[in-house]
Amino acid sequence: MSSEIESLLREVGAVLDGHFLLASGRHSPLYVEKFRLLEQPPHTERLCRLIADHFRPQGVQLVAAPTTGGIILSYEVARQLGIRGIFAEKVEEGRRFGRGFRVAPGERTLVVDDILTTGSSIREVLEAVRAEGGVPIGVAVLVDRTAGRVDFGLPFFACVTLELPSYDPAECPLCAQQVALTVT
């Protein structure tokens, strides 16, 4: 299934070659433009079904995600599970649920996101869930670009795992070659 999903990402033009500044601040010669996938509801629905089916036995009561691409994923995974989907927005000290979103004390919450690079956005959502008294029960992403190197201490599921290099800017070989940087 993983190679089929990787082929799908390439087919829809979601995997790009170049020199990219990632949201994490790291640089990479490959970039996954999630919105090339998310703009196509049938593909998004299919991948979200993989996530929903994987976590369905765990009794998920709420799906939460970071903005921006996570909003679509939270909605679709929650829709397929027949529960609520919410999102946490960036604030000075991390992420918080606004817009009237609430996590009930003890609510079993699945955190979803689009692309995993460092895990910082997911960690911020996990903290926001815990701050409201919720109980994170798992993490799921469309694409794990860390090849499984990030551990959240929770059950984890990725629709596809890709070995995509990323570099600290000070150690980036593309910067050393003076390849123009594309801000994502």
Q: What proportion of the residues form beta strands (DSSP E)? A: 25-35%
Based on CA atoms alone, the radius of gyration comes out at 16 Å
Spatial arrangement of strands, main beta sheet: 5-4-3-6-7-8
Biggest β-sheet: count, sense, barrel? 6 strands, mixed
> So how many helices?
6
Distance between the termini: 28 Å
Question: Which descriptor suits the 3D outline?
Answer: globular
| Overall CATH architecture | 3-Layer(aba) Sandwich
What would the CATH topology be? Rossmann fold
Would you identify the regions where 5 or more consecutive residues have pLDDT less than 50? none
Number of domains: 1
Helical proportion?
25-40%
The topology string of helices and strands comes to HEEHHEHEEEHEEHE
CATH class: Alpha Beta
What is the average of the pLDDT values? 94
Label the structural class.
Answer: alpha/beta
According to DSSP, the number of beta strands is: 9
Protein traits:
6-stranded mixed β-sheet; Rossmann fold; single chain; 31% strand; 32% helix; 6 helices; alpha/beta; 3-stranded mixed β-sheet; 184 residues; 9 strands
Summarize the structure.
It is built from six helices and nine strands, in the order αββααβαβββαββαβ. The chain is of the alpha/beta class. The mean pLDDT is about 95.
Can you tell me about this structure?
The chain has 184 residues and is an alpha/beta fold. It has one domain (2-183): Rossmann fold, CATH 3.40.50.2020. Helices cover 32% and strands 31% of the residues. The protein has helices spanning 2-11, 34-38, 41-55, 69-81, 120-131, 173-176; strands spanning 15-21, 27-32, 62-66, 84-91, 94-97, 108-116, 135-144, 156-161, 182-183. A 6-stranded mixed beta sheet has the order 5-4-3-6-7-8. Helix 5 (120-131) links the parallel strand 6 (108-116) and strand 7. Helix 3 crosses helix 4. The longest helix has 15 residues, at 41-55. The radius of gyration is 16 Å and the shape is globular. The model has no long low-confidence stretch (mean pLDDT 94).
